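Review form for a predicted model. The reviewer records the input and the model, then writes brief findings.
Reviewer: anonymous (R2)
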Amino acid sequence: MDKETVLDVLDKAGHGQHRDELAALVQTSYWIVAERLAGRPADFRQSEDSDGIEPERLDAFEQAMAALPLGASRFGGVPDLPPGATWPERDGVPMEFIAQLRLTDLSDVRAGDDRLPGRGSLLFFYNAQWATTDQGEAGCCAVLFHDGPDEALVRATPGRVEWKSEFSNVSQFAPFLHGVASLRFERTVSVPGGVGPYVQGPLKEVWQDMHCEHHGAMTGHEAFHENYLLGYVDEQDYVDAHVNGTEDQLLLQVDSEDAADFGFGDCNKLFFLLTKAELAARDFANVRIYSMLG
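Model under review:
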């Protein structure tokens, strides 16, 4: 998928008069394709007298992790932490590990795009208490940046913290571990969601319907799972997630991806956002996370 193909979709939909407006908005993005390596080692809801772990599932999980070299890009599993870093927590409860992206894995597809560092790793965590930034909570996620070689990373050993969510009648153990999936990246382009701060002027009058009706054609695929690095949030922002308006930048979008046994809410997505200035400064301390926007 490239800019001209997106603009052709606009033309065929009868809105070619807005071609220049849309062309100015099209942004390079990276579609993340996940391949299942192993399922999660334990059930999500765990009773007080059982840890929910089945030996065969745990064995498959551990074998998949052992086969992954330090720093390998993946969804789920356990992270390879930067030296000196600890597993991020919220209120003493370890967060869920979502993704580890080795930035050199993008080398073949990111020519001319310097928005991300050229080396190192980004690690993404989501708090285990189920709050997201659009629910008014702080500290709902963590993004760690390792600016160094893979061999300096340290494969984490998950702790074991028992806690009880306000939404559950049984105790659970954190961190909750997802399944493991390997990742590959394809260069593509991204357009803003139907409702948000980016589309203004005459294009705004037709964009919501245009985006809803032709979303698949403008992404170049009809994939069920839509995982992206950079680009735009692909949903309609009814919760004002873009608190910084057009200065906000999508860092990572993660779908309820079967390959890693992800399940966020009712098959929702996670959106990690920061500002363009923070991204340029390699400052990931204030990344925000949202789930359902509409």
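Findings: The chain has five helices and 16 strands.
Further findings: The longest strand covers residues 27-38.
Recommendation: see findings above.
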